[in-house]
Design brief:
Strands 3, 4, 6, 7 and 8 form a 5-stranded antiparallel beta sheet that branches. The radius of gyration is 17 Å and the shape is globular. The protein is built from 1 helix and 8 strands; from the N terminus they run αββββββββ. It is mainly beta. The longest helix is centred in the N-terminal third of the chain and has 18 residues.
């Protein structure tokens, strides 16, 4: 006989599922950054039919380590493309970040097509971040015959072996 689920357990599971959807798209393609300023990777989430949130952290100076509260305010560029070679860029822009936001960058890439795979990256100076892969949600009136969720939580990827991520 199935065990009843209390409200707290249901809320935790729902929160984990939401986070999993938010980050799962960014884990499908692993590429390394060409510049040490992007040592913290990239992520995407909150997919809508015409937009997706993109995230990274830039380290503009050696002193600008996470949590240091030190470093200049800088501008970081971002690009979204239909192909991994970035020959067909469909959205781009720039964002300002500094010590007040721990040099993190979060942008809402809009004007995208529903149910579409996109490649994204960030640029600081001449350096590039890793390339991430994301996907927009289906249109609001779309019939969806199958839906899969990848559920993960925050973790320090550099601190251990997280082999399960490759299967997401």
């Amino acid at each position: 006989m199935p065990r009843p689920v209390d409200r707290r357990t249901l809320l935790r599971a729902t929160g984990a599922a939401t986070l999993g959807v938010a980050v799962a798209g960014s884990l499908g393609h692993v590429a390394t950054a060409s510049d040490p300023a992007f040592a913290h990777g990239v992520a995407s989430g909150d997919p809508l039919p015409n937009s997706v949130l993109l995230w990274t952290r830039v380290t503009p100076t050696p002193e600008s380590q996470p949590g240091s509260g030190v470093g200049p305010t800088v501008t970081v560029g971002w690009e979204v493309a239909a192909d991994p070679a970035f020959a067909a860029i469909v959205a781009s822009g720039s964002a300002s970040t500094g010590p007040g936001s721990d040099h993190t960058v979060k942008v809402d890439a809009t004007g995208l097509a529903p149910t579409t795979r996109y490649y994204y990256r960030f640029r600081f100076g001449t350096g590039l971040s890793a390339t991430g892969v994301t996907r927009t949600a289906p249109a609001a009136d779309a019939t969806v015959s199958r839906l899969r969720f990848g559920v993960v939580s925050c973790s320090d990827y550099r601190a251990g072996y997280f082999g399960g991520y490759r299967y997401l």
